[in-house]
Design brief:
The complex is a heterodimer of chains A (728) and B (103). Chain A is 72% helix and 6% strand. By secondary structure, chain A is mainly alpha-helical. Chain A starts with a helix and ends with a helix. The chains are: A mainly alpha (728), B mainly alpha (103). Chains A and B meet through helix 29 of A and helix 1 of B.
């Protein structure tokens, strides 16, 4: 089996063809140009020419970037199976140390996985930019919004196109920064500024793990730890951070076996590296335990929530795991962690979505939950299923967020569900698109969400790649799917049905704007039909999406087949798949049915509490008190620690510093005194003496010629006498 | 009676010089001071001529003497003009009082 694997893996990785193309850099750098222009000139442009100038710049760069990205996608899709477009801009990092060298070029690469991401990021990103021109039209710092949006596009495109873990990490940090800037867009309001800070700090915790993972991976490539000391392998290859080089290296059985045997603290390095990377992903992609920032991030403008906190940035973690599939596939433990955390998050966040009263908060928890689904997908080895859900989720969740944006804009920034209701007639286009996205997320057959979610559910059930039984994962996800259908139906009912609860005055002026409805229609349509790219075989499709991505995940799948070689369950059949699908549809319909039963008429939070039991409602309404738990057991102790450090600094460190300063002061005072008395005294004395002498001597110079003549005469006589006396 | 020798001339020259010098140093009147200068020049002339006649011989001494006389005449002219200008300006020829260029 070992031999066949070697033979099987090698040809695959060697079949990678790279093509150097000169235009890739434009895709991320055009939005950067837009960001630069708007950041430097935007305020002036807005003042002199009006807001159209600002969004013309922002939209045109994103549009151009999208066109170029589409061309790249076309080239990859029509090229060879494992075609990778690359562009190396410059040698970014290159150093030698103790005979080891690390070379990291600043290079972009586009393979089929990147294509999917590029499509999602540029296309959905562009639509959301268009939407923003409507939603943000009343905002004063309009230019700032678009500058940061463009900067975000740059960072996100660097993240998905970066050819090395390091460049991906740069984009990873960049999107975190832009997320912070955009969440705190209304920074005059303290709670919104704090939400931005919370997002940033929580993300930093994850990012730290990411950095540690990266360093550990680098070390593990060239050596190992023995008896607490790092020992370099003899004849080790140079470490690399480039994805393809890394994949190639791991495909080499000798290297792989050596790599797998390395341990730190008794844990295999590969597991540790993967878990550290995944911990980074829990920060960026809002999974347990670092999901807490995402609901607060709803403080930002709604298009930001749609772009960053639903469609693109939060999916970066899923993309990262899929990108490093060959690494994760080596560690069953890491796969288990990813899938389990994903499943638990999916269920946990879905329940919190039940009783939220803020329309955006419901969607935020829904996002956390859906990201959990994606992680289960990539965690059980169904990488393409996870990525497909990423794509369909980008469509329907962006649509939902933009729909909520349209509602919020129409209601003048009222976003509590108690102020809504009956909006069906007032905002018809918003209603229909919102409904389309809702049936998609609920998983009604035929919609995009149905195909992607069912793929994940089935693959979770049917996997032996995780240590947790697939049935358990499947059960958790099925319940989560039911909850999803439930809370989404509740949201639609409370928003669009029943009697209007908003102000008469507000409703009279509420209307839809074309710039906002066009993106909604496009995304709504994609929410419905977007899934047809990946119709599973059992339903007569050929799952083109999975086949499209197959080459990218080939080596990952190869390593996974270690485990599933002998795997042949009865459910690994079309009958089983159809059965599972039927169950999934049933639970979704059940969820919708229950929600319909309960929320046909409006129910205030108090009524909900009565219906579901006070205690349960209180716990879920307060999000299981996780934020309070973190505040009490993480944030406060940390603050105490920093206060203690500050005190130590103030009294001990500063004391020592001040003491030495005082000593220096005294010493220099003494030194100064010596200088003053002795040195200056001597100098002054000489000066004074010279002056006194001069005062006396100048009397001699009278200006009287006759006096001089007398003196000369007397002098000559004296000289004569002297010569006479001395010389005899 | 010893014949008049070089020594006599030189002593006379020295006496003339000393008188001239004392005159130069003590007279308040500018004209008097000029007279003192004249005396000193003539004392020198006397020495030169004496050396020329009784010392080395030759004509150089006489040439010098004539030159000095001419020089003295020119000098006296310029000096008297200055004295006149001073008198016009200060209404005095007392050299001790003409001190506006001092300090």
């Amino acid at each position: 089996m070992e031999a066949t694997l070697q033979e099987a893996v090698h040809p695959l990785t060697e079949a990678v063809t790279t093509r150097e193309v000169p235009y890739l850099y434009l895709v991320p750098f055009l939005p950067l140009l837009g960001a630069f222009l708007n950041a430097t000139l935007g305020a002036q442009l807005q003042k002199r020419l009006g807001k159209w100038a600002v969004h013309t710049i922002a939209l045109s760069v994103v549009f151009a970037s999208m066109c170029i990205a589409f061309y790249a996608i076309y080239e990859v899709a029509t090229g060879e199976e494992r075609l990778v477009l690359t562009q190396t801009l410059w040698q970014w990092i290159g150093f030698n140390w103790k005979g080891l060298s690390l070379q990291v070029p600043f290079a972009f690469a586009v393979d089929r996985l990147t294509c999917v991401m590029l499509f999602v990021v540029t296309f959905v990103g562009f639509l959301i930019h268009v939407f923003s021109t409507g939603y943000m039209q009343d905002e004063k710092p309009y230019w700032r919004f678009f500058a940061w949006m463009n900067l975000f596009m740059f960072a996100m495109l660097v993240l998905v196109m970066g050819d090395s873990i390091l460049l991906m990490f740069m984009g990873w940090e960049g999107v975190g920064l832009c997320s912070y800037l955009l969440i705190s867009y209304y920074y005059e309001e303290i709670d919104k500024a704090q939400a931005g800070m919370k997002a940033f700090v929580v993300n930093r915790i994850g990012d730290f793990a990411f950095i540690v993972g990266m360093a550990l991976l680098l070390w593990a490539m060239v050596g190992s730890w023995q008896d607490g000391r790092f020992v370099q392998d003899s004849g080790a290859l140079m470490p690399t951070l480039q994805f393809r080089a890394l994949e190639e290296r791991i495909a080499n059985p000798d290297f792989r076996n050596a790599f797998l045997s390395k341990e730190v603290f008794g844990i295999p390095v590969v597991t540790l590296v993967c878990i550290l990377f995944f911990f980074g992903a829990t920060g960026k992609s809002a999974q347990i335990p670092l999901y807490v920032w995402l609901p607060d991030a709803m403080a930002g403008p709604t298009p930001v929530s749609a772009l960053i906190h639903a469609a693109t940035m939060v999916t970066a973690g899923v993309y990262m795991v899929a990108r490093l599939n060959f690494l994760y596939a080596l560690s069953q433990t890491a796969m288990t962690v990813v899938a389990t955390v994903g499943a638990i998050t999916a269920l946990f966040a879905a329940t919190i979505g039940f009783f939220q009263t803020d329309i955006k908060k419901v969607l935020a928890y829904s996002t956390v939950s859906q990201l959990g689904f994606m992680f289960v997908g990539v965690g059980v080895g169904a990488f393409s299923a996870g990525i497909m859900h990423l794509m369909t989720h980008a469509f329907f969740k962006a649509c939902l967020f933009l729909g909520s944006g349209s509602i919020i804009y129409a209601l003048h920034h009222h976003q509590d569900l108690k102020d809504m209701g009956g909006l069906r007639r007032i905002l018809p286009l918003t209603f229909w698109t919102f409904l389309a996205a809702t049936v998609a997320i609920a998983g009604i057959p035929g919609t995009s969400g149905f195909f992607s979610k069912d793929e994940i559910l089935w693959r979770a059930f049917d996997n032996e790649n995780t240590l947790v039984s697939g049935v358990v994962l499947w059960a958790i996800l099925a319940v989560a799917a039911m909850f999803t259908a439930f809370y989404m139906t509740r949201l639609v009912l409370l928003t669009f049905f029943g009697e209007p609860r908003a102000d008469e005055h507000l409703l009279q002026h509420a209307k839809e704007y074309k710039r906002m409805t066009i993106p909604l229609i496009v995304l709504g349509a994609l929410s419905i039909v977007g899934g047809f790219v990946g119709v599973p075989e059992v339903l007569g499709g050929e799952n083109r999406f999975e086949h499209f991505l197959e080459p990218v995940f080939a080596s990952g799948q190869q390593f996974l087949s270690f485990a599933s070689e002998e795997h042949a369950s009865i459910l690994h059949s079309h009958t089983g798949e159809i059965l599972l699908m039927a169950i999934a549809v049933c639970v979704a319909v059940l969820g919708i049915f229950f929600a319909w039963k309960i929320y046909r008429t409006y129910r205030s939070p108090e009524q909900e509490a009565e219906l579901f039991g006070q205690k349960l409602h209180r716990i879920i309404y307060n999000k299981y008190f996780v934020d309070e738990f973190y505040l009490a057991y993480v944030v406060r102790p940390f603050l105490w620690l920093s206060k203690a450090c500050a005190l130590f600094d103030k009294y001990v460190i500063d004391g020592v510093v001040n003491l030495s300063a005082e000593a220096t002061k005294i010493l220099s005072w003494i030194d100064g005194a010596i200088d003053k008395v002795f040195v200056d005294g001597t100098v002054n004395l000489m000066a004074q003496g010279t002056i006194a002498l001069g005062q006396r001597v100048r009397k001699v110079q009278t200006g009287q010629i006759q006096f001089y003549v007398t003196v000369i005469g007397v002098g000559i006589i004296c000289l004569g006498v002297l010569i006479y006396v001395v010389a005899g | 009676m010893t014949p008049v020798g070089l020594t006599h001339y030189l002593v006379l020259g020295a006496i003339l010089f000393v008188f001239g010098l004392i005159n130069l140093a003590t007279r308040k009147n500018a004209i008097g001071v000029l007279l003192g200068v004249e005396l000193i020049l003539n004392a020198a002339n006397l020495n030169i001529v004496a050396f020329s006649r009784l010392g080395i011989g030759g004509i150089e001494g006489n040439v010098f003497a004539v030159t000095v006389i001419a020089l003295a005449a020119a000098e006296t002219v310029v000096a008297l003009a200055i004295v006149l200008a001073i008198f016009h300006h200060y209404r005095t020829v007392d050299v001790g009082k003409v001190s506006s260029m001092r300090d």
